[in-house]
Write a structure and sequence with these properties.
By secondary structure, this protein is mostly helical. It has three helices and two strands; from the N terminus they run αααββ. 0% of the residues are buried.
């Protein structure tokens, strides 16, 4: 917008000095203004497309929330028994993950080679 204002002032200045400036210079300035307007219009179109995409995404999120609310309002919640079953399944999955991680080779405790005892290194050796 700032560039357009500057070019507008430049054209007005050139129009005031018609007798002194050739028509080719005026044509060049007019071409620059036209290109600037085209670029600005393209930017406006791109911004409008982005706004439309954001609005569509927003509408999708609103519909999604409304569906969840309607589901809960129409008795779509869990019963106590269903909740317990889901909790048990979740606990079983956690136990399986713990078993898998414990079945992997565990790292041995550090062993200091001078005293040949485990659980410390040279810096923390009790015998030094």
């Amino acid at each position: 917008m700032h560039q357009l204002d500057q070019q507008k002032k430049q054209i007005q200045h050139l129009q005031n000095q018609k007798n002194q400036i050739s028509l080719s210079i005026v044509d060049q300035v007019v071409d620059k203004v036209i290109k600037s307007v085209e670029v600005t219009m393209q930017n406006i179109i791109l911004l409008q497309q982005e706004v439309n995409q954001i609005c569509a995404s927003n509408q999708h999120q609103k519909k999604k929330k409304e569906i969840i609310r309607c589901f809960i309002q129409t008795g779509g919640s869990l019963t106590g028994m269903e909740g317990q079953q889901l909790n048990e399944k979740h606990d079983q999955q956690k136990q399986m993950q713990v078993q898998v991680s414990s079945s992997r080779l565990s790292c041995r405790d550090p062993r200091y080679s001078d005293c040949n005892k485990t659980g410390h290194n040279q810096l923390k050796c009790p015998s030094i």
